[in-house]
Amino acid sequence: MSHTNHDNIWTDAITPHPTMQHFPSEPLSPHPSTLVSTSSPLPYKQDPWTFFRTRRRRSLIALLLVASFLLLFFAQARIGEDRERRICFDSVKLDVGRDQAHLTVQSPSAVTVTAPARTETVTIYENAPIIPAVTASPPATTEPVYQPHTVESVVFAFIMWSENSAIEGSILIKSAIMYSTRPLEFHIICDEPSQNYLQGRLSLLHHPVFDVTVRFYRPSWQSMVDRISREGGISTDHSAGVPGLMKLFIHEILPDSVAKAIYVDTDAFFLTDPTLLWQTFAHMNASTAISMPTHPDQKTPHWHNASKICSCIMLLDLSKLRALRLMDSSFYRDDTSGLFPPALSPPTFEALFGPPGPDGHYKDVALGDQGYYWAIVSNRTDLFEHLSFDWEVSSCLLDMYGTGVGHDDATEEEQRRAMLHLNETPHQGEAIMPKLLHFNCLDGVDVYFEWTGWYDPDNSLTQRWGSALDYHVGTKWIWLNRGHGKLDMDTIVEPLFADQRFALEHSRGFTP
Q1: What pLDDT band is residue 63 in, cutting at 50, 70 and 90?
Q2: Do residues 218 and 491 touch, judged by C-beta distance below 8 A?
Q3: What keywords are annotated for this sequence in UniProt (predicted)?
Q4: pTM of the predicted protein model
């Protein structure tokens, strides 16, 4: 009995058509005439999904292409919207009539409209009957530019003639570097031994906190003597000698580019930031050229009262002193052009000292340069201002005003009661706050910190200031290498004085 398996009707063996050709890599396609079951009497049935399988793949590919196109179109539209900018012409005055042909622009102009991260320029043409053209430029690529903030240097002018002077002066320089919050410039008038000593100490300075610039000026002894001779009326019997008188010519030796400077004698050192002293220049009167401490209580008629000031520390406006021609010269006196003012000092010298003697020099001038400075500032008070005693705490005559270290809990009232030598001075009733110590008038010694009194524990000066002296003298130079600053040293040999430069510029017969 024959039995038909209907469950396997599509899986029965298929006999290929004899005439059918196929490639080995392609599956055999059943021919309709061969799709006959050998075991089934049912007629041949074709697969109803064959047609849709091929069409479905094509439709899917087409759908994906359409979707991709729509996404791309949408993205481009969004980018175009981001690039649009609204331009407001409220700030541009246009005379616009109802008819566009009457559009008139009052004057040619260019208006820059700034949008976030983009600058658009609207160009409006005069009498143009069209809507102004808008030119949009892409945002310029900018990078931050970092420029170092330049800080004004604190400028010093020193005179150090002899190695002993340099030994003292090195402590002064070191103390300024220890406390300064600004770059420093040191202009040092010196001889060769002084320069050699100072360079030995300064060469230990590799990376200070702030830049340190040092310029050594090396006039010859003869050039200094000649400058004093050309002045004609000054001389000295002071222990500082000829180099000491150079304090009157600092403005002539230093170049014109140095406009202001702090002068301090070598036997001193700072207790605080010298920037505070430098800032005093900013508070001086417009006419002031010199500032130093004054002591109206001091009466020394045999010195023409020259002790009423102390030229141990001075603020010098060098530019003003040059313009005033502080010191006279035969080169200036020989000038008959009438284009330049006479020197400032001769009338002041004669007013205090009387006319020069038979040798042409003023008589009985004491204290070296200080005597001449006293003549200048006492007769030209418009050029002068008092400088606070805080910067002149001196061991000479003044006994440091009674100040000293120790008793850190002292009140200002207690300090006021302890003060000495302040009556009839600008600081009467005040407390002196020491900022710069001066150890002058320590007789019998060439270097102040070698004074034998420092080894006497009962000496009042030693008790009050001996520990401060030990600290500043003993501080090592290498300890100042605590930053990223640089040291710049240079030497100017045989610098010309200002009167020599004047003679050269005006052909006065001088040849260097």
Answers
A1: confident
A2: yes
A3: Glycoprotein, Membrane, Signal-anchor, Transmembrane, Transmembrane helix
A4: 0.72
Instruction: Give φ, ψ of 292 to 5 degrees.
Output: -155, 165
Full 3-state SS string of 198-220: HHHHHCCCCCCCCCEEEEEEECC
Q: What are phi and psi of 112, to 5 degrees?
A: -105, 120
Give CA–CA dist 137/121, Å, rounded: 8
The answer to whether 264 touches 169, Cβ cutoff 8 Å, is: no
Name the strand (E) or helix (H) holding 498: helix 498-505
Q: What does the DSSP assignment read for 10-21? A: TTS--PPPTT--
Residues with Cβ < 8 Å from 153, sequence gap 6 or more? Answer: 182, 183, 184, 185, 211, 213
Walk me through the domains of the chain, giving residue ranges and CATH numbers: 1-46 (no CATH), 109-138 (no CATH), 154-505 (3.90.550.10)
pLDDT digits (tens, 9 = 90+) for 461-500: 999 999 999 999 999 999 999 999 999 999 999 999 999 9
CA angle 442, 445, 448 (to 5 degrees): 60
Contact 117, 139 (CB under 8 A): yes
Burial annotation 61-70 (CB, 10 A radius, 16+ → b, else e):
eeeeeeeeee
Q: Where are the beta strands (DSSP E) in 418-509?
A: 436-438, 487-493
Residue-wise pLDDT for 207-242, tens only, equals 999 999 999 999 999 999 999 999 999 988 877 889
Residue 321: CB atoms within 10 A of its CB come to 22
